[in-house]
Design a protein that fits this description.
heterodimer, A: 254 residues, alpha/beta, 9 strands, B: 406 residues, 16 helices
Chain lengths: 254, 406
């Protein structure tokens, strides 16, 4: 078991996403502590990118705020290092491939390992292209999380069999962002994935309400929430900690 | 249409969808199955005489192919060197080479049972071609276009609407072609079952670079037969403008194996290298974006850079992966042409030959002006005149300080 998959051992996990550097890195650190303190089991930290093609408007705007605050990959690494000893839950990075390619794969994953980032999700690196980075992530013991979508069809078997940490099940078609209703048959997709792997399955994209979270907990091993958290940070700016704590408690109840 | 393997280095696709180290499929998981379905459908279609026959029929009877290879005698005399030939893609229906690919992909989409097509557009030429193909084949059509481009190409926006397409104005990012591609990809992830994305250039994830190249390679195949008939020998050079690079790869492909034919791609240097420009090979470096590994204009942190060109069609921070390989292997040359040079060539060709080129194509004309004079008179140069310039008249007038509005 890895530090990430351990999280799912005895409970349904709540995975919280926020954008690194939104509204600034000091606040990101404070909000990570707030989210973890209120019950988030894994924190995903967004690495800003100029052209986030898998994101809806809420996270696109967060990318721009992160750039405005001067966030860089090295800044993000510095922030996660400073969290060592302060936060017990696994930290992960989520973003796009080009800034990582540009940083250098070996250097990037080495820094992840040094700075306590135990998993990475790359939105534009599907299973078939993982060979691009796998040598380096493996070398440094960083888990590469793969995604399964409602459209994955015949690809589910291959993706699931090779999954690490957890399988990120994309709840719906389209980009990230709150949806009033998730129409995909999550239960059936989870069952399909479980035919091929024991790796836990967490569901994200569009999840924002406690009711949705409850339903997903009944069908999968974890719930991933991004845009709703990012929206709270947009609304409350530098004073979002209390609201984030309240939201996480609400989302993890019952 | 034929997609035969002509044994040249650029068709070495040992790794699926790769041109050397370039290419690949770097897209969100949601699109992977669609790409795989598209690849399978295309492989099947290109071997089906029913499909290729229908496309050939439409290209001939509807789009007006073959396009002429016109001997530009006035320009040849003026430059005093190699004979200049213009491959007149501007005479195609809808006024550019884009119709070759739009018809091919729309037919393919229909064959796959898709009822709706979406596309990005920069100058509007690909959007118009896609809207046209959709109208002809009775498909729903939605076009994504950057806000800045809808303003500088207002006439094309209306043209697309006239053809029954819905045009979405993209206000994210730099509001140009790159952002139109982002938004079209996002839309495709929203609705993929009944929708095909008619990507307009030889870029993006596999199999698009190969499909678009195959559909555009008709340009070079015709040009080769035409020049052999007129000159009895191959040209010394083939020159084309490059944004994503579809008219260039279409012009080059048939000549790749002819090592004595120089292949020259003309990128948009905008205000000049070192200033705002869109010359990817000259000022970019290797990266991974829009589904492909290739060259991109980017900053020190790997963020995609805002680019600039007077030409909306060349205003793109990347280049197709097959061009990346042709550059890396040294088979093709890529040169940078500024706004000023392109605008001068726009006037030059209009006045000398009575042909108003698209400002994109004017980049290729500008480079020919630089090199043809020094070449022997018994040699020839083919310029791909990828589109006509009617759409650019108002923008060029404004560039020259005249207050002309459409």
């Amino acid at each position: 078991m890895s530090k990430i998959s351990d999280v799912f051992k005895n409970k349904k996990a709540f995975i919280a996403y926020l954008m690194g550097g939104d509204p600034n890195l000091a606040k990101t650190k404070e909000y990570i502590l707030a989210l973890a303190g209120a019950g988030a089991d894994i924190i995903e930290i967004g690495m800003p990118f100029s052209d986030p093609i898998a994101e809806g408007e809420v996270i696109q705007a967060a990318n721009l705020r992160a750039f405005a605050s001067g966030a860089t990959l090295d800044g993000l690494f510095g922030m996660t290092v400073s969290l060592k000893g302060e936060v017990a839950v696994p930290l992960m990075f989520m973003g796009y491939l080009n800034p990582i390619f540009n940083y250098g794969y070996d250097r990037f994953f080495a820094r992840c390992a040094e700075c306590g980032v135990c998993g990475v999700i790359i939105a534009d690196l599907p299973f078939e292209e993982q060979g691009e980075v796998l040598e380096y992530s493996d070398r440094h013991g960083v888990e590469l999380i793969t995604l399964v979508a409602p459209t994955s069809a015949e690809r589910v078997a291959r993706v699931a069999k090779n999954a690490m940490g957890f399988v990120y099940l994309v709840s719906s078609l389209g980009v990230t962002g709150a949806r009033s209703e998730i129409t995909t048959d999550i239960g059936a997709l989870v069952a399909e994935i479980r035919r091929y792997t024991d790796t836990p399955v967490a569901v994200g994209f569009g999840v924002h309400s406690p009711e949705q979270a409850r339903r997903i907990r009944g069908q999968a091993d974890g719930v991933i929430v991004g845009s709703a958290i990012v929206e709270i940070i947009r609304e409350y700016g530098e004073n979002a900690a209390g609201e984030l704590e309240r939201y996480v408690r609400e989302m993890t109840e019952g | 249409m034929s997609a035969r393997d002509n044994g040249n280095e650029s068709s070495n696709e040992a790794r699926k969808g790769r041109f050397g180290e370039f290419g690949g499929q770097y897209v969100p998981e949601t699109l992977m199955q669609a790409l795989s379905d598209l690849e399978a459908a295309y492989e099947e279609a290109k071997r089906d005489a029913g499909f290729t026959g229908e496309l050939e029929f439409l290209l001939r009877e509807y789009a007006g192919r073959p396009s002429r290879l016109y001997f530009a005698e006035n320009m040849t005399k003026d430059l005093g060197g190699a004979k200049i030939y213009l491959k007149r893609e501007d005479l195609n229906h809808t006024g550019s080479h884009k119709i070759n690919n739009a018809l091919g992909q729309a037919l393919l989409a229909k064959r796959m049972g898709k009822t709706r097509v979406i596309a990005e557009t920069g100058a509007g030429q690909h959007g118009v071609a896609t809207a046209t193909a959709a109208a002809l084949l009775g498909m729903e059509c939605e076009i994504f276009m950057g806000k800045e481009d809808t303003e500088r190409q207002a006439l094309n926006v209306y043209r697309m609407r006239l053809l029954g397409a819905e045009v979405h104005t993209v206000t994210s990012g730099t509001q140009t072609l790159k952002d139109a591609v982002n938004e079209t990809m996002r839309e495709w992830t929203r609705r993929v079952a009944d929708t095909h994305y008619i990507l307009g250039s030889c870029m993006g994830p596999h199999p698009f670079p190969t499909i678009v190249r195959d559909f555009q390679s008709v340009i070079g195949r015709e040009a080769k037969a035409q020049i052999l008939e007129k000159e009895g020998r191959l040209p010394a050079a083939v020159i084309a403008c490059v944004g994503g690079g579809s008219n260039a790869i279409g012009s080059f492909y048939e000549f790749i194996g002819d090592k004595n034919v120089r292949l020259i791609g003309c990128e948009a240097a905008g205000e000049g290298l070192g200033k705002r420009n869109a010359a990817t090979i000259a000022s970019g470096r290797v990266g991974i974006f829009h589904g492909m590994k290739s060259y991109f204009c980017q900053d020190d942190a790997g963020q995609i850079a805002p680019v600039y060109s007077i030409s909306a069609g060349l205003d793109y921070p990347g280049i197709g992966p097959e061009h990346a390989l042709l550059h890396a292997s040294g088979r093709a040359e890529y040169v940078a042409v500024t706004d000023d040079e392109a605008v001068e060539a726009f006037y030059y060709l209009s006045r000398l030959e009575g042909v108003i080129p698209a400002v994109e194509s004017a980049h290729a004309v500008a480079h020919a002006r630089k090199i043809a004079g020094a070449m022997p008179k018994d040699e020839s140069v083919i310029i791909c005149l990828s589109g006509r310039g009617d759409k650019d008249v108002a923008a060029i007038a404004r560039y020259k300080g005249e207050d002309l509005h459409e």
